[in-house]
Amino acid sequence: MSTTARIPEPVTPDAPTALQRPLLTQQWLDLAFVHWAVDPADVAGLLPDGTVPDVLDGVTYVGLVAFRMHRVGWLGSPGVPYLGSFPETNVRLYSVDAHGRRGVVFRSMDAARLVPVLMGRTGFRLPYVWSRMAVQADDDIITYTSSRRWPRPRGAYSRIVLRRGEPVAEPTELEHFLTARWGMHNTFFGDTGYLPNEHPRWPLHRAELLACEENLLAAAGVPTPTGEPVSVLYSPGVPVRLGRPARPGGIPTP
After folding, report:
1. What are phi and psi of 14, to 5 degrees?
2. Can you tell me the distance from the alpha carbon of 124 to that of 19, in angstroms, rounded to the nearest whole number?
3. pLDDT of the residue at 1
4. How far apart are CA 158 and CA 133, in angstroms?
5. Least confident span in 17-21, 202-206, 227-231
6. Which residues contact 44 (CB under 8 A, 6 or more apart)?
7. For the chain: N or C, fewer Cβ within 10 A?
8. Which letter does DSSP use for residue 46 in this model?
9. Residue 103, SS3 per DSSP
């Protein structure tokens, strides 16, 4: 896989464009962002055709992101309280395409509701998997647990425990790079496409990682990083709007 990317668009803390007709609305709540630095060459082959690793000072990153999805709604409809609300844990990489659009690539998406998992897999070709999951808060300590049910590898797991710290007044360049992501790259309709999103600026907190036991990265085919995470953040969350996938040429799908 290779492509010649244009100069990437700037990293901006606010969405670069407003979505007039969102395909999906939802809330992302109680997020844990845990990131490790990796060599771009080690993950380049895991990205969709037409994209390359997005780098900051020659380094790219793998993220383990755990959160609560809340009230997913379609085409402006009210969010669904049960089927649209569930814990989720993602393994993600960072990508840029030939149009300079920065995004994320999901290598796995563990979620606790089977129906949304099936819809995500069939409708969007996303790597959703069904897992037993929980998010528990005890004052400033938040615990995220996940154990995979279907499909394989069954038993893939994660347990993340962090202590929420002080709010981030001004995120660093790296913190913006890892969180200010306004779309994802994925294979839609046989081609690599880009699905944009928009939401308010992230409210971020620094966080202390008390425990991180997992094999989700290895199960997703990501080389296991060595050393400690380079960034650990918490966010209480944001409301999110997602647009329609755009084909490689930037043309939205019907």
Report:
1. -115, 150
2. 19
3. 46
4. 9
5. 17-21
6. 1, 52, 53
7. C
8. G
9. strand
- Token readout for 72 is 């997913």
Compute the half-sphere exposure of residue 66: CA atoms within 13 Å on the CB side of its CA.
26
Confidence class for position 43, pLDDT limits 50, 70, 90: very high
Beta strands, E only, 75-198: 86-97, 102-111, 128-138, 141-150, 157-167, 183-188, 191-198
Can you list the alpha helix ranges (DSSP code H) found in 86-180? 114-124, 173-179
Q: Which top CATH class is 24-242?
A: mainly beta
Cα distances (angstroms) measured from residue 2 to each of 53, 68, 121, 181: 10, 35, 26, 22
Phi, psi of 197 (to 5 degrees): -140, 165
Residue 88, both tokens: 């989720």
* 135 in Cβ contact with 30 (< 8 Å): yes
Residue 140, helix vs strand vs coil? coil
Q: Is the pLDDT of residue 55 over 90?
A: yes
Determine contact, residues 212/34, Cβ cutoff 8 Å. Answer: yes
Which segments of 4-109 does DSSP mark as H helices, in order?
A: 40-43
Question: Which tokens sit at 191?
Answer: 């081609």
